[in-house]
Specification:
By secondary structure, the protein is of the alpha+beta class. It is built from 15 helices and twelve strands. The strands form four sheets. Strands 5-4-3-6-7 form a five-stranded mixed beta sheet. The longest helix is centred in the first third of the chain and has 35 residues.
C-alpha cells in the first residue's frame, strides 16, 4: 500500500484515539504513585503503633523495605525496580505537586515525570518549587530525552551549590563497568568527566567515518564499536592513524565566565552545563575543543572563532551551535554527524542562509523527502513541521543561542 493510500484510508479519529489512550495511561501512573505512597505511609504508621517502634525515621525506613519486598513479589519485578517505583512515587506525591497534577491530567508522560524526579536529587527543599515551576512547561512540548537535557540545564540555575564543587565530588566516582547481556555479548560503561566522554564519542565518529568504504558491509554503529575495541585492545585501528584523528567539540562559554568575572556554567556540545573552571581550561588549552563566545545576558553567539562571518565553514559552525542536534521531531542525533539541509530546496530557488538551513540526520532527511513531512523556518531558529496527516510539531534551537 502506498503512503497516499494509507493516509486516505486511515480513519480520521484514529490518531486521536491513540493520543487519548496515552493520556489515560499517564493519568493511571499518577493514581499508582498516590496508591504506592499511601501504602508506604500506612505501613510506616502501622510500624509506629507497635510497642517496639524505633522512632519515625526508622519506622518509615522499615515501611519502605516492607513495601519494596511486597511490590517486587506482587508485580513480578526486581527489588531494584520496586525500590525505584516506591521512591519515585514518594517524590511525586510529596515534593512535586505540579508534576503530579500534569501527570494526572495526561499532559506529561511518566517518563517526563521521572526526569523531574531525577533532577531534584540533592536540590534543597526550598529550591524544589521554583525548579518545578521553571522546568515543567518544557515537559509538555519536548520528548523525554530532549526534556532531560533541558531539565539538567535548568537545574544548574536553581542549585545553590556550585557546579565546580559538585563536579569534584562526582569525579571521585569515575569508573568503568561491565554488564553481561544476552547472546554472548556485554555492555561496557564508562562514567567520567563529561568533556572527556563527549570527546571520546566524537573521535569514534570521526574514526568510523574514516574507516568507511563502499565494499564494507558494516553499519556506522558497527564501525564505531569496532574502532573502540581496536583502540582499547591494541591502541590503534588498522588502516587508520588514531593520532591523526582528533575530536572536535564546541564549548559555548559566556563572555564574563571566560574573563573570570563570573562563574556561569558553559555549555558542552552534546551534553549540557559544565563548570566554568573546566570550560576556561578547555577554551585555552585543549586543541580538540573549539570555543564559542556567548553574550552574558542573552546567550546569543558573539563569535565563532573568526573575525568575519562570510565563508560557508563559519555558517556551518554557527548552525552547528544553533541546532546542537538533528532538528527532526524527537531526534537527538548530534548536529556534527547530521546533514545541513535546505528547507526550501536549492533546486527550487532556496537560499543558502541560516534561516533556510538546519541539521537533519539521514533518517529525518528521508522523512522530509520521501514521507512528505514539510518544514517551515520560524523566527528565532524554531522549525515547524507538518506531517502528511496535517499535524504540526515544533522543534527549537539549542538553549545556547535562544534569546
Amino acid at each position: 500500500m502506498t503512503t497516499d493510500a494509507l493516509i486516505d484510508e486511515m480513519p480520521s479519529d484514529l490518531l486521536e484515539v491513540i493520543a487519548d489512550l496515552d493520556r489515560t495511561m499517564a493519568s493511571l501512573t499518577a493514581l499508582r504513585a498516590r496508591a504506592v505512597d499511601s501504602a508506604w505511609q500506612w505501613i510506616a504508621d502501622t510500624e509506629a503503633s507497635r510497642p517496639t517502634s524505633a522512632g519515625p525515621t526508622a519506622d518509615a525506613e522499615m515501611g519502605r523495605k516492607l513495601l519494596v519486598a511486597e511490590l517486587a513479589a506482587l508485580l513480578r519485578i526486581t527489588g531494584s525496580a520496586a525500590a525505584h517505583l516506591v521512591s519515585e512515587s514518594r517524590s511525586l506525591v510529596r515534593d512535586l505537586p505540579l508534576a503530579l497534577e500534569a501527570l494526572s491530567a495526561g499532559d506529561i508522560s511518566y517518563r517526563h515525570a521521572v526526569v523531574v524526579i531525577d533532577n531534584i536529587a540533592s536540590l534543597p527543599e526550598e529550591a524544589l518549587a521554583e525548579f518545578e515551576v521553571a522546568v515543567l512547561p518544557a515537559a509538555r512540548r519536548l520528548n523525554a530525552p530532549r526534556f532531560a537535557d533541558h531539565a539538567r540545564r535548568v537545574r544548574e540555575r536553581h542549585h545553590p551549590e556550585s557546579l565546580s564543587t559538585r563536579r569534584q565530588t562526582a569525579h571521585e566516582r569515575r569508573s568503568v563497568a561491565i554488564e553481561p547481556a544476552r547472546d554472548a555479548m556485554a555492555w561496557l560503561s564508562h562514567y567520567g568527566p563529561a568533556e572527556q566522554i563527549v570527546a571520546i564519542d566524537d573521535r569514534l565518529d570521526r574514526i568510523a567515518a574514516a574507516m568507511r568504504s563502499p565494499d564494507d558491509p558494516r553499519t556506522f554503529a558497527q564501525l564505531r564499536a569496532d574502532a573502540a575495541c581496536e583502540l582499547l585492545l591494541s591502541g590503534e585501528v588498522p588502516g587508520v592513524l588514531p593520532a591523526g584523528i582528533r575530536a572536535e567539540i564546541l564549548v559555548a562559554v559566556p563572555a564574563l565566565t571566560l574573563l573570570k568575572l563570573d562563574d556561569e556554567p558553559a555549555t558542552l556540545e552534546g551534553y549540557g552545563p559544565i563548570p566554568a573552571d573546566v570550560a576556561r581550561l578547555l577554551a585555552a588549552d585543549a586543541p580538540s575543543f573549539m570555543r564559542v563566545l556567548t553574550h552574558p545576558e542573552t546567550s546569543a553567539v558573539l563569535s565563532v572563532g573568526r573575525d568575519r562571518y562570510t565563508v560557508p565553514a563559519d555558517m556551518r559552525r554557527f548552525l552547528r551551535v544553533r541546532d546542537e542536534t538533528c532538528r527532526g521531531v524527537g531526534c537527538g542525533h548530534r548536529a556534527a554527524t547530521s546533514d545541513v539541509d535546505h528547507a526550501h530546496e536549492w533546486a527550487d530557488g532556496g537560499a543558502t542562509s541560516v534561516d533556510n538551513l538546519a541539521h537533519l540526520c539521514r533518517g529525518d532527511h528521508t522523512r522530509k523527502t520521501q514521507l512528505r513531512w514539510r518544514v517551515k523556518h520560524l523566527p528565532g531558529g524554531t522549525l515547524e513541521w507538518t506531517t502528511p496527516f496535517g499535524r504540526t510539531y515544533r522543534t527549537e534551537p539549542s538553549t545556547v543561542i535562544r534569546t
